[in-house]
């Protein structure tokens, strides 16, 4: 059962006019931690969610206006309680960053239905629960910025990550639709899609299905070894990613999607080009499915 966590004892002076209140889920490590530190350094207030009291104490020890809350995003009642308490005691949430999540590394045939459920419970249902809790407050104020950290893996795929990709593709579709629904309320919605960054994603934040089917060894064993051995050596700098996200937040017209990392740009472009090739190659068959009596545009 998730609980509302610690309340900071800090008091601050009068904030500058552009100071914002951020609510960031998953600030113990990785991009969430880097983004929280960067926002605090710019003078923003940050309410960050963590899973343990020790992580809460460590977060509140950071320099700046840092407030920790204990939360498991799969406990939807607790999500509502944390958001409502934040709005009541810390003031309006200007920027939500739904960052909490993890990766599942495992071949489709070797991964269980329980693996799939857990992946979606955290990455999809947890993300949606946090957004749904914050959205009514932003809609009432006619302002706010909703950000969810998805992945380049929400736009392209690699073998051995089917459940993870499925969860991130789902969040991408939800966010794009939500952005169209709330644009008239002055609310921005952005999917942030990192490539390979030096975080715990391939380490502590990764679950790995056990191997069982030898037929996949040639394909998958080198990929899994590369992910394991490359952990901590990824090219992406989380601090630079955090700076890029804050620069995007400060923009007057933030994008619906923000890719982070040259590898993300390269791989997503290659995926789009492959998609365009299929469109062109199969366009005639795609267009052949209407009734014959449907009038065609001039």
Report on the structure:
45% of the residues lie in helices and 15% in strands. The longest helix has 29 residues, at 113-141. It is built from nine helices and nine strands. The radius of gyration is 21 Å and the shape is globular.
Mean pLDDT metric: 91
How many helices in DSSP terms?
A: 9
Low-confidence segments, given as residue ranges, are 1-16
Main pleated sheet: 7 strands, parallel
Classification by helices and strands? alpha/beta
Strand content: 15-25%
User: Radius of gyration, rounded?
Assistant: 21 Å
The N- and C-terminal alpha carbons lie at a distance of 61 Å
| Count of extended strands | 9
Strand order of the largest sheet: 3-2-1-4-6-7-9
Categorize the overall geometry.
globular
State the share of residues found in helices, binned by percent. 40-55%
Run of helices and strands: EHEHEHEEHEHEEHHEHH
SSE blueprint:
Blueprint: E1 21-25, H1 30-41, E2 45-50, H2 53-60, E3 65-70, H3 76-89, E4 95-98, E5 103-105, H4 113-141, E6 144-149, H5 162-182, E7 187-194, E8 206-208, H6 217-230, H7 238-250, E9 257-260, H8 262-281, H9 283-286
Parallel strand pairs: 1-2, 1-4, 2-3, 4-6, 5-8, 6-7, 7-9
Helix pairs in contact: 1-7, 3-4, 4-5
